[in-house]
Amino acid sequence: xxxxxxxxxxxxxxxxxxxxxxxxxxxxxxxxxxxxxxxxxxxxxxxxxxxxxxxxxxxxxxxxxxxxxxxxxxxxxxxxxxxxxxxxxxxxxxxxxxxxxxxxxxxxxxxxxxxxxxxxxxxxxxxxxxxxxxxxxxxxxxxxxxxxxxxxxxxxxxxxxxxxxxxxxxxxxxxxxxxxxxxxxxxxxxxxxxxxxxxxxxxxxxxxxxxxxxxxxxxxxxxxxxxxxxxxxxxxxxxxxxxxxxxxxxxxxxxxxxxxxxxxxxxxxxxxxxxxxxxxxxxxxxxxxxxxxxxxxxxxxxxxxxxxxxxxxxxxxxxxxxxxxxxxxxxxxxxxxxxxxxxxxxxxxxx
Length: 351
Known about the structure:
Number of helices: 12
Largest sheet: 2 strands, antiparallel
Radius of gyration: 21 Å
Helix content: 55-70%
Structural class: mainly alpha
Strand order of the largest sheet: 1-2
Order of helices and strands: HHHEEHHHHHHHHH
């Protein structure tokens, strides 16, 4: 009994440390994504970007964060104060919760124990991600409604309807991937792609990846799908009445969603922490885990750069174009891809 309790406490400590590391790493990455976005924008627009706060402007994110903290916090008199505070907190919490099922690496061996680099490898990992992402929509909707501002409410309605529309196409695109892998477990999906003789899922499901990528842009409210934050139409968007760190939570949650979306795409379609043409069994477990983490981060950085590149290249859609693309293009394409995948699997196993 004593040994069992000791093992449970050791596991609890491992998971707690892993949660703290991943949460703070996500916040740090989101902080420097703001710097990266402004640098990418500067390069694409032939200007230097941030270059005043520290060498090459590397302290600019801390200056921006300090500015948000020091700003006066204003809550409108006519707002629903409880929900006004709940909105950004819910958006930030939902964004951070999605990282719980992402496999960041294989495992480390510390003091004779195998420490998995995944907070929870649950057997319904994909469903968990969709459930948490759906909760994040309430953060936008509650914030816009509680502000008691018609522009904020209109932007929140746009955001909610956009998220619902594109979640459908995203889910249908993933059904084809799940049919080929036979599991909802993210850790198992990565191991299948790493198995000898197997390719990454992008080779088997390129159309599903394209649909998922487009839907990820819409779910993260990124250009050309940033209708909930259309400044020229809605002043500022659903967070128009927010200031100080409440506004910071909304902005940070968007960048964390980009980071986690990139991690999910890398995991589902690009082998996760797999390194092409490398036999991890020839390396020690700790070295293999470190190499895997670096490989996954490299893939994530590529997708984050893609998010930023598209923002400063492609103009914003009109709202009717956004809905037409979601319902009349992506949903039928995802359904067709699912049916074709089912037919191919049926013919393959009936050979």
